[in-house]
Amino acid sequence: MNRARNRDRKSDRWLSRIRRVWITAGLVFTVVFTGWSLWAYRADADAHAALASDDQVMVQHDDGVWSFVPTRGDSSRRDGAALVFFPGALVDPVAYAPLLRAVAAGGYRAYLVEIPRRAAFGGTDSPELEARLARVVAGAASPARWVAAGHSKGGVVASTVASQQRPGFSGLVLIGTSHPRDVDLSGLTVPVTKIVGTHDGLASRAEVESNRGKLPLSTRWEWVEGGNHSQFGWYGFQPGDRWPHITADAQRDLMIRRVLDMLADVTGHPPSLPLS
């Protein structure tokens, strides 16, 4: 009887030790993962530098919307079309500032619309997001024609906006996303561009291809050979992503060119500032 009790006590002690080990390991993993995530989603120095106004681009921030407005160049292009961009989930919206600035330097107005709560906890369906979008596209200074674009979870918002076909909506650019998944955009008559990295760990080729039928047959596909998910923005290496086989500069340059191509199609004019 005593032997059985001793065995039970030893067994309980071992189970208690094992539980402590698992709890400790779980806490360490949580701390490491949280720290990595906080670092990974931060906008880098180049992104913050892109927020400075100069003699070519005026940058302003007002109630969740960053505006990048060209201060010189062809006024017909500047007043005729614009980019409305939605950032990826959890990513600091500022991480996309260099893309928006490049668009403005090319002669087009660009608006970076922040998604409330960084697209978490219903941020993509929030009234605040709707109010920000409505202010951009319906304000006194809004463009007659505009292109919706988004990266990752921002592609969900851009796809939803495209499905609504609001006045002035003239094009769609989906970057590093498997969307549209929840809406069928195959009947869109405006130009559509899909930009995806072949090494994207969060929007795999299989996932992207599974939704190809929800886009128009005329969609222009750009597979960035070796490109991953994180390098479509100016931030760290995102958890779950794959290592790229292309430089960040090369991947981002291609993305910027394709966005400018779309705006050129919408306005009927080539961009005023060729990229090097």
Describe the structure.
With 276 residues, the protein is of the alpha/beta class. 39% of the residues lie in helices and 17% in strands. It has eight helices and eight strands, in the order ααββαβαβαβαββαβα. Strands 1-2-4-3-5-6-7-8 form an eight-stranded mixed β-sheet, sandwiched between helices. The radius of gyration is 23 Å and the shape is globular. The termini are far apart. Residues 24-35 and 272-276 have low confidence and may be disordered.
Please summarize what this structure is.
With 276 residues, the protein is of the alpha/beta class. It is 39% helix and 17% strand. It has eight helices and eight strands, in the order ααββαβαβαβαββαβα.
Query: What is the typical, i.e. mean, pLDDT?
Result: 86
Assembly state: single chain
Radius of gyration, in Å, reads 23 Å
Instruction: Note the beta-strand portion.
Output: 15-25%
By helix and strand content, what is the structural category?
A: alpha/beta
Topology:
Layout: H1 2-40, H2 45-49, E1 57-62, E2 65-70, H3 75-80, E3 81-86, H4 97-105, E4 109-113, H5 127-138, E5 145-151, H6 154-164, E6 169-175, E7 192-197, H7 205-210, E8 220-224, H8 248-267
Parallel strand pairs: 3-4, 3-5, 5-6, 6-7, 7-8
Antiparallel strand pairs: 1-2, 2-4
Kindly list the characteristics that best describe this protein.
8 helices; 17% strand; 8 strands; eight-stranded mixed beta sheet; alpha/beta; 276 residues; 39% helix; globular; single chain
